[in-house]
Amino acid sequence: MRACLTLIILTIGLIGCSKPEVTQEQVIRPIAWTQVKLSNLDQVRRLSGIIQPVEATNLSFQVGGKVDLVKVKLGEAVTRGDILSTLDKRSFVFSQQSSQANLQKAKSALVEAKNEFQRYTELSKQGLVSKSGFDNAQAAFQSATSAVNLAKTQLDISTKDLNDSQLKAPYNGRITKRSIEPSMQITPGQTVFEIEGEDGLEVQIMVPETLIRDLSTGNKMQIHYPAFPELTGDGTVTEIGTRAQTANAFPVTVLIDSSVVGLRAGMTAEVDFTFEGVGRTGYRGQAFRLPLSAIGAGSGQSSYVFVYDEKTQTISRRTIQTENVIDNQVMISSGLKVGEIIATAGVSFLRDGQNVRLLDKHVKQFN
After folding, report:
1. Alpha-carbon distances of 40 from 133, 229, 271, rounded to whole Å
2. For the domain bounded by 61-86+168-197, which CATH number is listed?
3. 326 - beta bridge partners?
4. Architecture label for domain 89-164
5. What residues in the chain have per-residue pLDDT under 70?
6. Which residues of 258-278 are buried (b: 16+ CB within 10 A; e: fewer)?
7. For 257-302, how does the pLDDT look when each residue is reduced to its tens digit (9 = 90+)?
8. C-alpha separations of 56 from 50, 59, 90, 98, 145 in Å
9. Cα separation, 167 vs 84, whole angstroms
10. Is there a contact between 78 and 172 (Cβ–Cβ < 8 Å)?
11. Can you name the CATH fold of 30-40+282-358?
12. Any idea where the domains of the chain sit in the sequence?
């Protein structure tokens, strides 16, 4: 009886220690994805330049002298014809008066020489004077005429010098530099003001030789302003240099088409130069654009992606031809079709024929 009881206890213990069978369910992995579409194989190079006024010049007096008056301040707006500064006029007035007196004296001498020449002309017709006397009278008349012309020229010069003792604005604009003060002694041609016109602003850029062949006047550009990060503007190429300067770069001028409040000459601008790209295989035309995370490295130089099949809800590995990498986007010339769905993350953890589901793009994922 005791032996039977022991056997029953052992049997119950063995039954209690046995493990039940566990059925593993297949986990369908969600994948980040994108639907491919064609885009241009354009490339963008952003180059920095300096903003300059379209119309700007240095102003100087054409005559020298002592500064009498300065009528404008730095940054002041001026209108064409406004008097900016004047020189002490006394020496110019004296010179003009002296020229006027010399002209009157030359005119009086001319009248006397003319009368003498006319008298000798009549006497010569009558044979009452010698030929030498007539020649002398004629020469005196011609000399007096030349003296009057010279005196007129000197009067014009002195009058111009008097007018040039006033410096006027050549066009509407704003004074951007002033290097003159009253009582300062200046020389002809010495820069005393810089003026910036109101015809707009432009960007001066040095473009490398590898890009200059793709540019032509009239090309439209997009301009960014570091001083105003939230603003962008449009520009037009107006000038292209024909000779390289620093580091084999060519000077290019881009006119700023859209006005930006607060933009000033001397600020930095960044211009986007867009040109037709050429793939590393020589491919030109439209291409598929995918993020770097969607591309897997195959054997040799090959690359691949995983394409999603909506019917079977599986992915298949497909070899593609890559061309360029632009802004962390890979340009692909072959191996894909428009509208196909591509896995864009975790490519190294995927396998050919794997069952997957598309991740809802409206759901944020947190690592």
Report:
1. 95, 27, 20
2. 2.40.50.100
3. 329
4. Orthogonal Bundle (1.10)
5. 1-26, 361-367
6. eebeebeeebebbbebeeebe
7. 887 788 888 899 999 988 777 777 878 888 898 999 999 988 888 8
8. 14, 10, 32, 38, 45
9. 6
10. yes
11. 2.40.420
12. 30-40+282-358, 44-54+198-276, 61-86+168-197, 89-164
The residues, any chain, with a CB within 8 Å of residue 79's CB and separated by 6 or more, are 169, 172
Provide the H-helix boundaries in the chain.
Answer: 2-17, 90-125, 131-164, 209-212
Residue listed under structure tokens 């986990």? 27
Is this structure's pTM higher than 0.70? no
Domain 44-54+198-276 sits in CATH 3.40.50.300: no
Question: Whose structure tokens read 């704003």?
Answer: 174
* Residue 170 to residue 314: CA distance in whole angstroms: 75
Alpha-carbon span 358 to 18, nearest angstrom:
41
Report the candidate in 203, 193, 220, 227 with the shortest Cα–Cα distance to residue 275.
220
Tokens of 305: 């992606």
The structure tokens 């001026």 sit at: 78
